[in-house]
Structures are given as C-alpha cells and as structure tokens.
Amino acid sequence: MPKHLVIGSTPFRNIVFPYYFIEKNFGNFNNHIKFYSAFPPQLGEMVLNNKIDIAPISSIIYAKHPENFLILPDFSISAKGKTGSIILISKKHFEEISSVCLPSNSATSIAMLKIILKVKGIDAKFKISNSSEFDDCDAALFIGDDGIAAREKFSLNRTRSYGNNVIDLGEEWNKITGKGMVYALWLINKKSAEEKYEEIKWFSELLMTSLNYSYKNFEDVTDEIKGNLKKESVRFHISSLSYNFGKEQTDALLNFYEYAKKYEIISDVPKLNFLKI
C-alpha cells in the first residue's frame, strides 16, 4: 500500500472487539495503518480537521457536519434495546429527575438522553462531570466501559444498589420509538476519501475480516478483551450490538435524526453520503 492510513480507535470494548484481529496481527499491517486512540467526540474533531483519515464516531456528529464526512458503508455500532453500556443511575424515579451529570466522552448518548427526557416532559439541567460520582446531581450518565461497570455495580449486585434506579437508555429509546439506535458510524474525511480511496477500500475489507474473526472466536476474544470487567457483562454488551449498516439501521438512524431535529439538537436531517466502494 503506497499511503499510510491513520485510523481512529477508542478504549471501549465495543471497538476493541472488531479491531481485535487487526491489533493482534498488527505487525502485518503496521506499514499500512497507524492507530490513534481517543473518545468518539474527540475522534470526530480529528477526522473533521484532517488529522485522522477514518474513525468510529458518534452518529450525532455526522448530522452536525454532513458536508465534511463520508460514511463507510456496511458498518455501524447499533442496537435495538438494552446494550448494558449506556446507563443512567438515578437517585430518584425517572419522572422526578431535575439534574443530570454527563460524561465528557460521549455525544450520541447525551443527545439520546436529552431527547428521552424531553419526550417524557422532564426539564432537567445538565452538568459535565469527569467524576464517577453524582456530585450534586439527581442522576448520572455512564457510557462505554464505565456504563458496563456501573451496571455491574448497581444492577447486577443488588446488595450494592443503594436504592438507586438503573436505567438502560437503549431500552428506554426502544420503548419510546419502537426502533433501534445507531450509536456510531465509521466516518471518513472527504479529502482522505479522494487521496486514499484504495487504502480505505482495503481497510474496509480488513475490518470485515477482523470483525468476522471476533465473532467466530467470540468466547476467546471476549475473555481476552474484558479487562477488569466481568466476562458475562462484556459478552452481554457485545451480543446486544450489531455492526451492520443495512436498512434497519438506516431507518433507525434517520429516526434518531428526526427526533434530534424536533428537539433542536441539530438543524436538519442530513442526507446520508456514503463512500462508493
């Protein structure tokens, strides 16, 4: 391959899983690709500013800058119902929440939470917090590995729930809309798409190979990537996800954008512009 690709990654289990084969065999690919790890909102900024060629990015970021990105076809991080990783822990019943502490490492999940609260007629105030505690909020949102850990602590271990309510936002979204949710897309910088088309096409095939390997070796891979989390929690989370981007996911994404427009999170529902492969 004549040109290097700079590929965005995150520390979340749901990215470690599809990238597992690539990273395990990185010696075979390090002349072709370089990984850069950050959280999805930060990756979005880096692809937007042409510092990274392609990355898994919060789907709401595409809707805010559709003119700057192309979507890698066939891939997403989606789910219909519970994910076990986007968890709202509340000291109060849902309808009584007046303030929420938000993480700084999410964009789509925060947008989804704000929509859910608006649909329920809840006018909550929000505060960005890097703490794992509630600070002075009624509720706190945990996502990714922090969400999995929060579910383990407050839901799976009933003796430590402390009376808190554990709410899986994927489940709440499905109850409200009847549809799934597309949390992330692999987005490509438009300049990179022009200058590195063949390399991106090659990476798309490699990503599919890597993803298929992880599913074929599901138990071994999830055991290895679980880190400090319980393997049952990681397996539940990964099993809840779809990495496809077909008609069902397209409908779910456009539905999300319709809600985001209605509640003034985005100005318009964007056209989905895909890289032609």
TrEMBL record:
Q: Which GO terms describe its biological process?
A: menaquinone biosynthetic process
**What's a single GO MF annotation on this record?**
lyase activity
Family matches, as SUPFAM superfamilies: Periplasmic binding protein-like II (SSF53850)
User: Which Gene3D superfamilies does its entry note?
Assistant: Periplasmic binding protein-like II
* Keywords, in A-Z order: Lyase, Menaquinone biosynthesis
TM segment ranges:
none
- What Pfam families would the database entry show? VitK2_biosynth
PANTHER family (alphabetical) = CHORISMATE DEHYDRATASE
What is the name of this protein? Chorismate dehydratase
Please name the source species: groundwater metagenome
Q: What is the lineage of its organism?
A: unclassified sequences, metagenomes, ecological metagenomes
